[in-house]
């Protein structure tokens, strides 16, 4: 059966006479045709079976779209024709074009597949392919119709670059994978990525470590939405119906994020407006009465299709979690407008996230060593304890072509965030009688953040050498206020956590301020980047200068109401140059080898007990690897080996709580293997294996709180017989080797394996997915830096999701 890939124009189709410059190497004909149609803004329709397994001729030069397509078809026995409606089509030489709608592939202008190409629901529903994953129409469209494989990304390079030609490790999980797994959270999605470890927070959003380095930045469309000091970015809470892909960029990535941690950054690419109308309604129902309703709608507003919209709405509510705390509530509202013609594109949008997340299920270490094995099934505090957040994000993007060589790009966002921590947390490990003291937290924080990014992109050809140069500037400034109320800091002694007393309600109304911290942080950077392509050789180099400023104050309110003001200093200024260089060489048409060096810089806000700020943290990564695209690009493999060294690492002072000490440095070594795609007709997979050896050769010796070995595998199979067409099953495994918890080796988590399964059905516009997480109901644990709080994974959970597209 022909593979039905569908892309539709985001502008009028009358672009066939406009010349464009192309640099497309010989490759799978289908992919080359889609790339020409997307970049040229033309509509192209053809029978998929005609181009299957064919290679295109190289297309290198300035041509009209029709000329470019004819160059690509050279030697294939195919020709280009035009239908009476003006649509371009491909037929066999001396043969009439097929009119079989169910087997056609339609390609035209759109955003890059990672950001969402569109298709009318009816067109896709008319040809259900039994080889691609059986997913919703929206997921098929937003993953570019390529199944589990992501072909390109514009996040790291700020240009739409094939991942197979990017000389660094970039992992991407697209909408097809997310839909097939019935993933509900960013944590669910990141299981698919090698080198990522999740650390749930007791009263906040999860944080993530990449290649062993914690607190990886979470970006949205390449832009930060939170400032240091907050309890997490609302990007963590983006509903999966709004996500086109999740990318993890390995290494310091200073060119993109400036002050990002050494391991890498996480980027969420949201679904973008599209010209052709499409709408999806989605409902999910799971354990403890957890119900989510979502709506995704896009289309053109004006007859010329230049003005488009996207609207995503999601609302989640639940009765309680597995520990008896009130269930999560999450509301998401995101309208976006885009106006685009052949030279100009303007996007404006707004996101609102309102959420309340309960204390997660957790275990506690014993003072004698070891971890409490019996799960706790009741709140240790009040049922309403948890973390609340409201975030409003306003953003725009402006892109303007300046002649045939230059493009100016400007992006900005403004984010307001209000957060509330309110709950009880153990502050010591369990006694012999399972008792421990609990301390209250009642903290409000506010963050106001501006981010700007502007750059000029120039593309030139010098004979066989193709270059893309970027020169730009970015600036981020934010204000952070933290208010600790008098309800915080109270102690309740619990003699036995399995028979706890009634905890006092934390109901501070704002009249009892005990402590306040106010900070202002700003960062500015200039960057220069060069991409060079010469035959099989691809080079990517950049250099960035980062400047960082921080100032702040604190005030303490005594019991009698007197206020004492403190300054955190005259102001902090730190700066650094961070170069990056990567080379990739295509050994064959299918296999490439690459190597890169990346430098990173992270300003230090850590203070010592003796006073003063610790020096900035610097990092260097050396990485080598292989990338392969096999089976007509249906299967992608990446193998990477890396070494990241880190100096001036700051760790928590084990003696003086709330302060830090300098600990020299750390070295993270390891290798990663990732695979995604189709290996047999109907059998699709995404999998990863990670070996990470994180060493901290300093005193005092602290435990390393992550596994050395971890792996994940998710497979789906679509039944190939006519009687079972539309039915599929999925099976997945997540493995982590043993690891230590807290600061010493008294607490160890054993190796663990989670098994997930699903059965799904797709028929025209309707789909059902029944997923079971933790099928065998094992006690699962996340990594933890604290022996008094060891977050647990989900118990056996059944989740039913239904979708309807129209």
TrEMBL record:
The keyword Iron applies. One of its GO terms (biological process) is siderophore transport. Residues 42-93 form the Secretin/TonB short N-terminal domain. CDD domains: ligand_gated_channel. GO terms for cellular component: cell outer membrane. GO terms for molecular function: siderophore uptake transmembrane transporter activity; signaling receptor activity. Residues 146-167 are annotated as: Disordered. Residues 149-167 have a biased composition (Polar residues). InterPro entries: Beta-barrel_TonB (IPR000531), Beta-barrel_TonB_sf (IPR036942), Plug_dom (IPR012910), Plug_dom_sf (IPR037066), Secretin/TonB_short_N (IPR011662), TonB-dep_rcpt-like (IPR039426), TonB_sidphr_rcpt (IPR010105). Keywords: Cell outer membrane, Ion transport, Iron, Iron transport, Membrane, Plasmid, Receptor, Signal, TonB box, Transmembrane, Transmembrane beta strand, Transport. It is found in: Cell outer membrane. It is a multi-pass membrane protein. PANTHER family: FERRICHROME IRON RECEPTOR-RELATED, FERRICHROME OUTER MEMBRANE TRANSPORTER_PHAGE RECEPTOR. NCBIfam families: TonB-siderophor (TIGR01783). Belongs to the TonB-dependent receptor family. This is TonB-dependent receptor. The lineage of its organism: Bacteria, Pseudomonadati, Pseudomonadota, Betaproteobacteria, Burkholderiales.
